[in-house]
Amino acid sequence: MILRRLRVSAELAWRILIHEKGRTALALAGVFIAILLVFIELGFFVAVPQGGMLVYDHMRFDLLLTSTDYQFQAQPWQFARDRLTRAASVAGVAKATPLYFAGGSWQDPGGGVKLDVFLLGFDPAARPFAVAELENQRNMLEQPGTILVDDTTRTIFGPLQAGREIQIDGRRMTIGGAYHLGTGFLGIGVAAMDEANFFRVTGRRADAVNLGLIELAPGADSGIVAAALRQALPGDVEIFTRQTLAAQEDSYWTTRTSVGLIFGSGLIVALIVGLMVLYQTLATQIARHLPQFATLKAIGYTDGHLTAVVLVEAVIVVGVAFLPAAAAAMGVYALIRSETLLPVVLTPSHVAAVLAATLLMSVGSAFLSLGSVRRADPADVF
């Protein structure tokens, strides 16, 4: 009985939608745009904190040692290298590797535009990055005056071929090669070098570290070792596990920056827009077919039957618009990745989340538009 009612409701809803194909096409276009907007806003909202973890995901560490003033990856501030020396003596710690960050000014030797470049300094022998190109070019990194450049560095920096000479903060450097990691939120250009070259270019001293990569001995528990490090080290450093670091980056980008707030509020606005577009579509359809709904009531259809018709109509509109919106989102995501280098990826979980949200949106809009159907009186209409 229930299946029969659903079949009848679906047939009526479909006939209503195809009765005026032009209006239905316009309605589908509006819902399509609303769903696509939800996909885009969700993609940005999820990708922003993932962009904050992009470089971390390619570092070798179990625990991360930072200054207590740590903000996010590009602003980690500094702490004394002695803290790493002491951390290495704590039970369960296998290795403590320093990592240095700095900003520099990139320019061609002959002059021209100066560009901001982010500099990574480290000991290549410590293998802090799980990046094949960095490890395979270890000898190149150790050569004086040589850098490796991330191949996602923007084209405005010019060709990145090996042998090209450039200046960083007025010091002549040679590009030894490229590697593939991703710049994340470090900047529009990133260059890696060994500690000696880093200190020579930046004028920094070795006793001020930006990040400490802590690798644990086999079988060591990260929670226990982290607690031991907090007991052994002064209160001017913070210890993150990978989980707490991800939570820190997520919280920073989604709640403490305008980027997260903009895309978070944009996602809410997109859902509201979709709800109102679908509500207006259904309300218009009901108003134009009010005599037909009144006739159905006159021949015995209950409000429950008519509610089912409107609900099915809403689901059909969302279902027809959803698939092309998801396909269009894949294309838009690819364009965003190429232009911004953000890890915007359409995952099955994202598709499922948007589908669930749009189905809820369709149900909500259907119930909002049912008032005129319930009030429809055959005597008044005819």
Structure description:
The protein is of the alpha+beta class. It has two domains: about 1-50 and about 255-380, no CATH class; about 70-235, no CATH class. About 55% of the residues lie in helices and about 15% in strands. The chain has 14 helices and eleven strands. Strands 3-4-8-5-7-6 form a six-stranded mixed beta barrel. Strands 2-9 form a two-stranded antiparallel sheet. Strand 6 (about 165-170) and strand 7 (about 170-180) form a beta hairpin. Helix 2 (about 20-55) crosses helix 12, helix 8 crosses helix 9 and helix 9 packs across helix 12 (about 350-370). It is elongated, with a radius of gyration of 29 Å. The mean pLDDT is about 85.
Summarize the structure.
This protein has 382 residues and is α+β, with helices and mostly antiparallel strands. Helix content is 54%, strand content 17%. The protein has helices at 2-19, 21-53, 82-88, 132-136, 138-141, 195-202, 222-232, 242-255, 258-288, 290-298, 303-340, 348-368, 371-375, 378-381, and strands spanning 63-67, 79-80, 93-107, 115-122, 146-150, 165-168, 171-179, 190-194, 208-209, 211-216, 237-241.
Task: Summarize the topology.
Elements lengths: L1 H18 L1 H33 L9 E5 L11 E2 L1 H7 L4 E15 L7 E8 L9 H5 L1 H4 L4 E5 L14 E4 L2 E9 L10 E5 H8 L5 E2 L1 E6 L5 H11 L4 E5 H14 L2 H31 L1 H9 L4 H38 L7 H21 L2 H5 L2 H4 L1
Parallel strand pairs: 4-8, 5-7
Antiparallel strand pairs: 1-10, 1-11, 2-9, 3-4, 3-6, 3-10, 5-8, 6-7
Helix pairs in contact: 1-11, 2-8, 2-9, 2-11, 2-12, 8-9, 9-12, 11-12
